[in-house]
Specification:
The chain has 681 residues and is an alpha+beta fold. The protein is built from 21 helices and 12 strands. It folds into 4 domains: 1-193, no CATH class; 196-364 and 371-426, no CATH class; 427-542 and 653-674, no CATH class; 546-648, no CATH class. The strands form 3 sheets. Strands 4, 5, 6, 7, 8 and 9 form a 6-stranded antiparallel beta sheet that branches. A 4-stranded antiparallel beta sheet has the order 3-12-11-10, covered by helices on one side. Mean pLDDT is 81; it is low at 29-64, 327-337 and 676-681.
């Protein structure tokens, strides 16, 4: 009966979400405010008869009025999620989802992870993340004082949760039982049996839940044009957390693609990867605009559009990954696996949101102005370029699907298209990124900028010339990437040096200068340095990559880059739910052993699938990527060895970007609760 409890909890989430929307959204149901309004508010008459400014800026002392429904929905979502995980743990094959994605021999870790991977499990996970975000927002607004606008935000969050719960019940049905339960399940797809694949789902949907809060708060602020500094400060932690979580999901997905021998690279521009990239790009653009708004209270319409579009891109990307509705029309409409309810919810929610934006955007007037040469202009231009990048990625993603729908032609838009389309956008964006740390607010002088950037320009030029002279036949695109990476890196470090060592020490040493930089500057610097290192690593590995494919016999040596690999043969070994042919390679550098690598060929009898598992050595010179295949005609074993110089820089760059987000969030939390006097900006 545990699964039934989960199903009932999911239904209650839908019901309570509708109730919360009724009670908290005055634009939809005015009577709800008479039920939950404090005594002071009722004494003065209906809230809706007061002015917009009074509505949005009046705090309500009765904070308990917003707690019951978000708390109840969160508890119900946890119950539903726990029920589904329990069904996988005990192998309840009467549930269709368990029978299709688990087996009695599946390791326990992957049984638990299987509850997050299928469409139905992922949708339930999204519902759970949405309810947790709603509760956290209620806590946040309670600590600072509930306003009428906050209540509307909670009502919109309830609508989002209700739509997701309805889509889960209609499209996914995670607790659907089979009429004839099988004796055992089909097992989890072998390519999904890895820890990064399990972590990707919770991280992704936590990021999307954060974007839903930004969406709801923006939509609630539109009627009164209340996108002010208070609104920006309210959304600061949500923007940072969402950006960091989405970036972590992208990093996890990239590393999975890289470590899977069948894929062999870290980015392929497929629908799944682009669905992750789109909301991250738009959330990055929103972060830039939000910082400008907090400082100058400008760019309000643009910031509102980005806030709405970031969550819209995440929702639409999720639909694209889970549905084939954009395939041939007759087949799509008859397909039972399409996320029709998810698409309908998307159309209803975002049609209403963009209509509200169209009606209200004209009332948002920027009260202040800024110079063309200023940090505000640089951040605005960067946000526009990021948005254009997102639009280009979206067009490249949906064009084959739309063409297939109308003409029936099946085409593939691969990396060459995206590289050629994004270079004209990415080059000036990275060039501008180098200037970003040095630009001053309000107004700056061109000659002062040139003086600050001359060292970065000189060093980046030297790097490009050095690489070009050593690899004169190399493609110009990677060379350009290395040059821009050097430009961004040296500019960020140069500005950091200027602020730490060229500024007065305030009588307390240079450490005080580091404290006064603030989390915003530190997170920006880490992010920019991380992007520079990532681009440098990706460009260098593209130039200097080496690959050897041969038929190897036991005892044979393979030379590649600075390493020598000795092939020791293959052993047939049993696994938990597979049989494996595991090869052994001893890796030498300068005649000294450094490590052993064990690539495998696994056979999963449950699904009858064979997978190739590469093994990777992350050395100081680069990555050594080794995989094995079947026997060759001469009796040897087919071995593929790739040496990718500076590939660890890609993962290090991603890690630095995430560290920047964590530093910003953590530092702000510490400053808020310890109140040590260090400024937060």
């Amino acid at each position: 009966m545990i699964a039934e409890f989960g199903h009932f909890a999911l239904i209650l989430i839908l019901v309570l979400g509708c109730c919360q929307a009724v009670l908290f959204c005055p634009a939809l149901f005015r009577a709800g405010y008479y039920v939950l309004a404090p005594v002071q508010t009722l004494a003065t008459g209906p809230v809706m008869n007061r002015s917009d400014n009074e509505q949005d800026n009046t705090t309500h002392p009765n904070h308990l009025s917003v707690w019951p429904l978000p708390f109840a929905m969160c508890i119900l979502a946890i119950i539903a999620e726990t029920a589904l995980i329990h069904s996988f743990i005990v192998s309840d094959f009467t549930l269709s989802i368990v029978a299709n994605y688990s087996h009695s021999s599946t390791p326990m870790l992957y049984r638990i992870g299987a509850a997050f991977i299928p469409d139905s499990g992922a949708m339930l996970l999204w519902v759970t993340a949405s309810t947790i975000a709603t509760l956290l927002f209620a806590v946040q607004t309670t600590l600072r004082g509930i306003t009428q606008q906050d209540r509307v935000t909670l009502g919109i969050l309830a609508i989002i949760t209700a739509l997701l719960a309805a889509a889960t019940l209609i499209d996914a049905a995670p607790f659907l039982r089979s009429v004839m339960a099988p004796l055992d399940g089909r097992g989890l797809d072998p390519q999904l049996q890895d820890v990064p694949g399990i972590l990707r789902g919770p991280v992704l949907y936590a990021g999307l839940a954060g974007l839903s809060v930004i969406f709801a708060a923006t939509l609630a602020a539109l009627p009164g044009a209340n996108l002010d500094r208070s609104w920006s400060e309210l959304l600061r932690p949500w923007a940072l957390a969402s950006w960091t979580l989405l970036g972590a999901a992208i990093a996890i997905n990239a590393y999975r693609a890289y470590t899977e021998q069948a894929w062999g690279n870290w980015w392929y521009w497929d629908t799944s990867e682009n669905a992750l990239l789109l909301p991250w790009l738009l959330s990055t653009a929103f972060l830039h605009c939000r910082a400008v708004m907090e400082k100058t209270e400008t760019l309000k319409p643009w910031a509102a559009l980005l806030a709405l579009s970031a969550f819209g891109a995440g929702w639409f990307g999720t639909f694209l990954v889970r549905s084939d509705l954009l395939g041939p029309l007759p087949t799509a409409l008859l397909s039972t696996g399409d996320s029709v309810a998810l698409l309908v919810g998307f159309c209803i929610l975002f049609a209403g949101a963009y209509f509200m934006y169209w009606r209200c955007a004209g009332g948002m007037v920027d009260t202040k102005d800024f110079s063309l040469i200023s940090r505000e202009s640089g951040m605005f231009i960067s946000s526009v370029m990021l948005s254009v990048t997102a639009a280009t990625v979206l067009i490249g993603t949906i064009y084959p699907l739309i063409l297939r729908w109308f003409d029936g032609d099946i085409i593939t838009v691969g990396p060459p298209f995206f590289v050629q389309a994004l270079i004209p956008i990415g080059v000036p964006m990275l060039f501008l990124m180098g200037f970003a740390p040095t630009l001053r607010w309000r107004n700056d002088e061109a000659w002062l900028i040139g003086r600050r950037m001359k060292l970065a320009a000189l060093l980046s030029l030297i790097v490009v010339l050095f690489v070009w002279m050593r690899f004169i036949d190399a493609s110009p695109v990677p060379l350009l990437g290395i040059g821009l990476a050097a430009w961004v890196f040296t500019a960020a470090l140069g500005d950091l040096w200027e602020r730490l060592w060229r500024q007065p020490d305030h009588g307390e040493g240079k450490y005080r200068n580091f404290q006064l930089l603030g989390p915003r500057y530190l997170s920006m610097t880490f992010a920019h340095i991380g992007i520079a290192i990532l681009i440098a690593g990706g460009s260098a590995s593209a130039i200097w990559e080496q690959q050897v494919v041969l038929s190897a016999r036991t005892g044979q040596s393979i030379q590649i880059g600075p390493y020598n690999l000795q092939y020791e043969g293959v052993a047939l070994l049993p696994g938990e739910n597979f049989a494996t042919r595991k090869a052994t390679f001893i890796v030498y550098r300068n005649a000294l052993p450094v490590t052993e690598l064990f690539p495998e060929v696994r056979y999963y009898p449950i699904r009858g699938i064979e997978t190739k598992e590469a093994d990777i050595w992350h050395g100081r010179d680069g990555d050594l990527h080794v995989s094995i295949g079947e026997r060759a005609e001469d009796g040897g074993r087919v071995v593929t060895v790739r040496f990718l110089p500076m590939m660890p820089w890609v993962w290090g760059g991603m890690l630095l970007m995430l560290i920047g987000g964590v530093i910003s969030i953590g530092t702000r939390v510490i400053l808020r609760y310890k109140k040590n006097g260090v400024p937060a900006s």
